[in-house]
Amino acid sequence: MASYNRVVLVGNTTRDVELRKIPSGTEVCDLGLAVNERRRDAQGNQIEDTTFVDVTLWGKTAVIAAEYTRKGSPVLIEGRLKTDTWETDGQKRSKLKVIADRLVLLSSRGSAAGGAPRASYGAAPQQSSSFQDAQPPFEPDESIADGDLPF
User: Fold this and answer.
1) How many helices (H) and strands (E) does the chain have?
2) Is the CB of residue 113 less than 8 Å from the CB of residue 98?
3) Which of 30, 43, 71, 143 is 20 to 30 A removed from 83 (C-alpha atoms)?
4) Bridge partners for 75 per DSSP
5) What is the pTM of this model?
């Protein structure tokens, strides 16, 4: 069975980013992301839930995050989920986090107010240059009439 591990999150950073280097010289940073969800309960009251997500960025993307984001900066993160596991006092612990492939700054430098996307950093997924270049995943079967479809 095939697997697909992809996450796209939009939220605000919860702290300033601290850039560090691992022994090989590669830059890495961790940031906290607050993602808000607004909904109404059964009585019609508005409820706001906030989910806090730990994100790790590597290389040039980490350098850009450290330089251009501050606490409260709106960003879009694209990446994959990873589980970190460790042991503390004989207790096994684990935490789910995001390894970011792409960072999109959603406000201009020095502004935490949001707005049009300013810049995107990291490896973007491979996409066709236009819709016309995209190939269908299968050849359509002309013998099937619309009335034959189960939906």
Assistant:
1) 1, 7
2) no
3) 71
4) 11, 105
5) 0.69
